[in-house]
């Protein structure tokens, strides 16, 4: 079964800003999400504890990026935003940003 993956504008802008090799890895992670959906395991995807978000993980050399996504409807996932990871911990500021994009998307769907 193929899943639908929607990229919000912040996620698309982030992907465009990446260097080509890391961009390719990130796009590959999105394709894996499209193919495997909720069955996509580590090291590609991980649920963020305490949030209704998951992260897609991509690494190219020492560069690491994370794309935040959420489940929307039966077979659809929405990629909200992303960032280049510079520390071992996932950025709380970036999580909050992704949650704001998620909320805005969900409110727009209900109007």
Describe the structure.
By secondary structure, the chain is α+β, with helices and mostly antiparallel strands. The chain has one domain (4-110): RelE-like (YaeB-like fold), CATH 3.30.2310.20. The chain has helices at 9-17, 20-36, 92-110, and strands at residues 4-7, 45-47, 54-60, 63-72, 76-85. The longest helix is centred in the last third of the chain and has 19 residues, at 92-110. The relative contact order is 0.20. The mean pLDDT is 92.
Notable traits:
111 residues; alpha+beta; YaeB-like fold; five-stranded mixed beta sheet; 3 helices; 5 strands; globular
Concise structural overview:
The chain is of the alpha+beta class. It has helices at 9-17, 20-36, 92-110, and strands at 4-7, 45-47, 54-60, 63-72, 76-85. Helix content is 41%, strand content 31%.
The radius of gyration over CA amounts to: 13 Å
CATH level-two architecture: 2-Layer Sandwich
* Strand-residue proportion: 25-35%
- The proportion of residues forming helix, as a percent range, comes to 40-55%
Number of β-strand runs: 5
Here the CATH topology equals: YaeB-like fold
Can you identify the CATH superfamily? Answer: RelE-like
The helix tally amounts to: 3
- Strand arrangement within the widest β-sheet reads 1-5-4-3-2
Span of the ends, CA to CA: 30 Å
Poorly predicted residue ranges: none
Average per-residue pLDDT, rounded, comes to 92
Major β-sheet profile: 5 strands, mixed
Helix/strand class: alpha+beta
User: Could you spell the SSE succession in H and E letters?
Assistant: EHHEEEEH
């Amino acid at each position: 079964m193929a899943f639908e993956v929607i990229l919000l504008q912040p996620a698309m802008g982030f992907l465009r800003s990446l260097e080509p090799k890391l961009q390719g890895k990130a796009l590959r992670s999105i394709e894996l999400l499209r193919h495997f959906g909720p069955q996509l395991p580590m090291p590609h995807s991980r649920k963020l504890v305490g949030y209704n978000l998951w992260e897609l993980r991509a690494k190219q050399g020492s560069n690491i990026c994370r794309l935040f996504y959420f489940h929307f409807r039966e077979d659809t996932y929405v990629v909200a935003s992303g960032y280049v990871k510079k520390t071992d911990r996932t950025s709380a500021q970036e999580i909050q940003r992704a949650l704001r994009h998620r909320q805005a998307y969900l409110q727009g769907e209900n109007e």
